[in-house]
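Figure 6 in text form: structure in, sequence out.
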């Protein structure tokens, strides 16, 4: 993938995650080509990558739309994340090195500032950086990469908390608790902080909202194999 293609992919991904394009929004080629200052074939490459991640869907004779994931799919993804991350904790030596702890604190300070200034694009990037540093202490690099991959797949859901000051302040508190647990020696305490950070109640809230929009009897879901894409 060329640098231009990567840039367009990252921009479109970010616009979807922060809600510039909401679930169900039509992604018109002409408008996006102008928005990103790119060419149609590069935009279509971005579409293909994001379709593999199930961020978007192409509907014949209608166009390309931001895909709204079914709650069952969301539950499955978070279950995988929990399995991966709790296993990674078992592979960590605690306390984590001071260099990792200090780096996480530095990132979190910027994350907190961006949150309180409602700079949600920056919050998105800093959140990814925070957890990338956290799991760099895992001895299995492939596992750390898988954790980042599956976290990215849930970003359209996790970012729904943007704009809710109470929830965002709680995220800051959770990150600080994770740092303190990484600086300690208790693996169970760290695992508990990771589980708390998932806030699985948000999945139930998402299901309730989905049922309001589509009806409680809506069971259709289309989950396809997806490859890892670095953004």
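Output sequence:
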């Amino acid at each position: 993938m060329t640098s231009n293609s990567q840039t367009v992919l990252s921009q479109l991904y970010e616009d979807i995650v922060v809600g510039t394009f909401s679930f169900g929004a039509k992604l018109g080629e002409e408008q996006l080509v102008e928005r990103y200052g790119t060419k149609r074939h590069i935009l279509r490459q971005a579409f293909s990558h994001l379709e593999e991640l199930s961020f978007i869907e192409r509907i014949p004779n209608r166009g390309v739309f931001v895909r709204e994931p079914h709650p069952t799919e969301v539950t499955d993804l978070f279950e995988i994340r929990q399995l991966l991350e709790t296993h990674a904790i078992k592979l960590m030596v605690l306390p984590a090195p001071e260099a990792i702890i200090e780096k996480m604190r530095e990132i979190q300070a910027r994350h907190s500032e961006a949150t309180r200034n409602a700079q949600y694009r920056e919050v998105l990037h800093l959140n990814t950086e925070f957890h990338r540093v956290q799991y760099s202490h895992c001895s299995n690099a492939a596992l750390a990469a898988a954790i980042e991959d599956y976290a990215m797949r849930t970003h359209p859901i996790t970012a729904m908390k943007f704009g809710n000051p109470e929830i965002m302040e709680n995220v800051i508190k959770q990150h600080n608790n994770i740092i303190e647990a990484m600086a300690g020696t208790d693996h169970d305490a760290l695992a508990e902080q990771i589980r708390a950070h998932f806030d699985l109640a948000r999945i139930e809230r998402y299901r309730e909202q989905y049922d309001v929009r589509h009806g409680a009897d809506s069971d259709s879901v289309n989950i396809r194999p997806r490859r890892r894409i670095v953004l």
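Caption detail: Residues 71-90 form the longest helix (20 residues).
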